[in-house]
Amino acid sequence: QKQGVLKNKHVVISAGGTIEPIDPVRYISNRSSGKMGYALAKAAAEQGAQVTLVSASTTLPDPIGIKTIHIQSAQDLSKQMIATLPTADVIIMAAAVSDYRVGEPAVNKLKKQASGELTLTLVENPDILAQLGAMKKEQYLVGFAAETQNLLAYAQTKLVKKNADMLIANDVSKHQVGFGYDTNQVTILTKDQEPEVLPLQDKLSIARKIMQKISEVIN
Ligand code: C5P
């Protein structure tokens, strides 16, 4: 029997960057490394939680002892997160989800165009955090907000608009913070507490603080 403050809790975490196909060999993605989401999965497991990691693109190995489901596109991630919602106690959307996808990916590899230009039509992806926010019952829902300006104001707006319970805001314009780095500097926003500014530190330490804070409010 596992011990820890998240014992008997099912924590579902999305991580990495989604992949949106253009044709069978090409895709649109982003610079997410998956490090923050994987660190959260590890921290939750350390605290005794049953963890499901839903992983989009990353080069990280599957964490030992953690159920890891691999998906690629935002639409697949949406289906997977909605499927796990009923059994989840905590859901953390740490994945970098592409806001748009290619409307109709080509069935065959695209050839060079005689005209010298190629137009891709992008259509909007579902906002998964907002979908989960609209569907959730007792689940505690956590999102991330990476901003380059007006960090706290934008993050606060997202918290309310997407009906999340906690939002982790990070200023990605700062050095050594966020995408790809091992360190991060975040501010934790919740519905009913003052924002908590955490100092720059490695992602696993941040993940442990976040899981600690979540356990305090859900227990
Ligand atoms: O609106 P923005 O992309 O900044 O919101 C970030 C948060 O929303 C993250 O938690 C991210 O995982 C989630 N998100 C989502 N679906 C999208 C875009 C973002 O779930 N299409």
TrEMBL record:
Residue numbers spanned by region Phosphopantothenate--cysteine ligase: 11-219
Occurrences of domain DNA/pantothenate metabolism flavoprotein C-terminal (ranges): 6-216
Record text on cofactor binding: Binds 1 FMN per subunit.
Pathway noted in the entry: Cofactor biosynthesis; coenzyme A biosynthesis; CoA from (R)-pantothenate: step 3/5; Cofactor biosynthesis; coenzyme A biosynthesis; CoA from (R)-pantothenate: step 2/5
Family per similarity comment: In the N-terminal section; belongs to the HFCD (homo-oligomeric flavin containing Cys decarboxylase) superfamily.
Species of the source: Weissella sagaensis
Keyword Ligase: yes
UniProt-recorded name of the protein: Coenzyme A biosynthesis bifunctional protein CoaBC
Binding, CTP: D99, K109, P126, D127, I128, L129, F144, K158, K162
UniProt keywords, alphabetically: Decarboxylase, Flavoprotein, FMN, Ligase, Lyase, Magnesium, Metal-binding, Multifunctional enzyme
Portion held of the full protein: 181 to 399 of 399
Cofactor(s) it depends on: FMN; Mg(2+)
Function recorded in the entry: Catalyzes two sequential steps in the biosynthesis of coenzyme A. In the first step cysteine is conjugated to 4'-phosphopantothenate to form 4-phosphopantothenoylcysteine. In the second step the latter compound is decarboxylated to form 4'-phosphopantotheine.
Catalysis: reaction(s): (R)-4'-phosphopantothenate + L-cysteine + CTP = N-[(R)-4-phosphopantothenoyl]-L-cysteine + CMP + diphosphate + H(+); N-[(R)-4-phosphopantothenoyl]-L-cysteine + H(+) = (R)-4'-phosphopantetheine + CO2
Record-listed E.C. numbers: 4.1.1.36, 6.3.2.5
Single GO MF annotation: phosphopantothenate--cysteine ligase activity
